[in-house]
Amino acid sequence: MRIACPFCGERENGEFTYLGDASPKRPNFAVDSGESPEGVEDAFYDYVYLRDNVAGYMREYWYHGGGCRSWLIAERNTVTHEFRSVTAAPGVGAAKPVQAGE
Amino acid sequence: MKYSIFSLAKAALSGHKGWTRAWRDPAPKSHYDVIIIGGGGHGLATAYFLANEYGIRNVAVLEKGWIGSGNAGRNTTIIRSNYGLPGNTGFYEMSMKLWERMEQDLNYNAMVSQRGIINLYHSDAQRDAFARRGNTMRINGIDAELLDAVQIRKELPFLNYDSPRFPIMGGLLQRRGGTARHDAVVWGYARAADQRGVDIIQNCEVTGFVRDHNGKITGVETSRGKISAGKVGMAVAGNTSRVAAMAGMKLPIESHVLQAFVSEAIKPLIPGVITFGAGHFYISQSDKGGLVFGGDLDGYNSYAQRGNMPVIEDVCEGGMAVMPMIGRVRMLRQWGGIMDMSMDGTPIIDKTPIDGLYLNAGWCYGGFKATPASGLVFAHLLARDEPHPEAARFRLDRFRRGAMIDEKGQGAQPNLH
Ligand SMILES: Cc1cc2nc3c(=O)[nH]c(=O)nc-3n(C[C@H](O)[C@H](O)[C@H](O)COP(=O)(O)OP(=O)(O)OC[C@H]3O[C@@H](n4cnc5c(N)ncnc54)[C@H](O)[C@@H]3O)c2cc1C
Ligand SMILES: [Zn+2]
């Protein structure tokens, strides 16, 4: 598996650290959202513990610790290990996201 | 046919032409009291215990490939009961006791070999942690011995004692730990279950669930047609989330690849199982002479049953650090298997929120040693609709309740367990 970092180019995957599925979003409740405590707990339980664990393409976080130290979002097939895209994660450093291959 | 020294001698006299098949190859019936999805060690052991202990014999095990083609036939065959947390200690020791009588129970040579397992320690802090684990084991009636470097050197003179970076200070030894022949465990349970009336149906992939108007599971759709069932149990290891998704269920599980390695065969060298405590590396020697070793997960979600180079490098570095002479043998084979990594590194054996569907999953990279106990407690759950006392903590709702059993203390990051 080689990962095409949008900043550094194609590198071997040992340079990268894996965090996991990029789809779970941290629940964000305003204090007066009116949500029941159980509803808040359910949302956090889902966020922290439950995973789709898809067989197929998955959006996931990788960290390029052996290179530019950016957080990246890759679309990778968990059945074939093929990458479809690798982009900078939103908010990554001061770097402007560049499409892979540019 | 009962296997014994006499049946072997008799078969030898007739040129080994008289052996009959060890289990039948039946066509699926239209209905079973219990269907087990997954013909790995756990599914087959469950069927055996259902028939043998709980009197439920109208049982089918449905396997999409051939039995033992999943992790049951891909693991590094280590059995041990050196766990430290309530829930795990009792369960794995029950499993060890079942290993100790498995061959008599099944009338099958599973090559259970209690050649011992040593976890090496390399620092004062690690020694303290191992002493604590050993004491926990002994309090629970499990054998454990804390050895110092001098004692270890007597048993394993070839290790690298003089490494300034990772000095070997001693190890925690469980003499009753060891290895078993993984394929023989699968075949032994298959044969014993078959003899008790269980249908083992290979090349039969479950592709969906049949549900009644209340949502209760009443059967399965398969590549060999629809089969109805009183109850359905899942024992599909790395494919758990895929099968659960067919029932619309999301679980606290991720699938990850773990690799294993075997060297060319050499004369007897390593007496038992050795684990390196300063990196992730473990090794034993098979009866054929190959060194069998492995280390960490690759670390990314995968259903591919193969891994990548960084982990191969890491495992080999670990081997060279603890046992430099390993650099003289050639690696012969390497492969991967898909682990059902749970969010706390501990299995889940429970009813699901869906009526009629039962779950046996979350075995991570340590489910081979659990095979007999897993079969027993899952059969108990399926037969009685309540958890076996030794599995009472392996509930699905423990994450929601904050009652995780996190042996490694990593939190909800499955690739680090
Ligand atoms: C490299 C490696 C090393 C390991 N080392 C050890 C070790 O030293 N000690 C230890 O204790 N554990 C070890 N393990 C873990 C252990 O192998 C597993 O936890 C255990 O085998 C899982 O249970 P099982 O045998 O039932 O799984 P499997 O053998 O994987 O059985 C699941 C079965 O379900 C079938 N299946 C999946 N989907 C479907 C479907 N839709 N329809 C029908 N059938 C389906 C699969 O084909 C498979 O045969 C290791 C694993 C690996 C990969
Ligand atoms: Zn980079």
TrEMBL record, chain A:
One GO term (biological process): tetrahydrofolate metabolic process
UniProt-listed Pfam families: SoxD (PF04267)
UniProt-listed Enzyme Commission number(s): 1.5.3.1
Presence of the UniProt keyword Oxidoreductase in the record: yes
Keyword Protease: no
GO molecular function: sarcosine oxidase activity
Keywords annotated in UniProt: Oxidoreductase
Phylogenetic placement of the source organism: Bacteria, Pseudomonadati, Pseudomonadota, Alphaproteobacteria, Hyphomicrobiales
Protein name: Sarcosine oxidase subunit delta
From TrEMBL, chain B:
GO biological process, one term: tetrahydrofolate metabolic process
CC terms in the record's Gene Ontology section: cytoplasm
Location(s), subcellular: Cytoplasm
Swiss-Prot/TrEMBL keywords: Cytoplasm, FAD, Flavoprotein, FMN, Nucleotide-binding, Oxidoreductase, Plasmid
Ranges of residues in domain Rhodanese: 34-78
Top EC class for this record: oxidoreductase
Matching InterPro entries: FAD-dep_OxRdtase, FAD/NAD-bd_sf, Rhodanese-like_dom, SoxB
Keyword check for DNA damage: no
Cofactor requirement: FAD; FMN
Entry GO MF terms: nucleotide binding; sarcosine oxidase activity
Principal localisation: cytoplasm
Enzyme Commission number(s): 1.5.3.24
Catalysed reactions listed for this entry: sarcosine + (6S)-5,6,7,8-tetrahydrofolate + O2 = (6R)-5,10-methylene-5,6,7,8-tetrahydrofolate + glycine + H2O2; sarcosine + O2 + H2O = formaldehyde + glycine + H2O2
PANTHER family: FAD-DEPENDENT OXIDOREDUCTASE DOMAIN-CONTAINING PROTEIN 1, SARCOSINE DEHYDROGENASE-RELATED
Family assignment from sequence similarity: Belongs to the SoxB family.
Record protein name field: Sarcosine oxidase subunit beta
Record organism: Aminobacter aminovorans
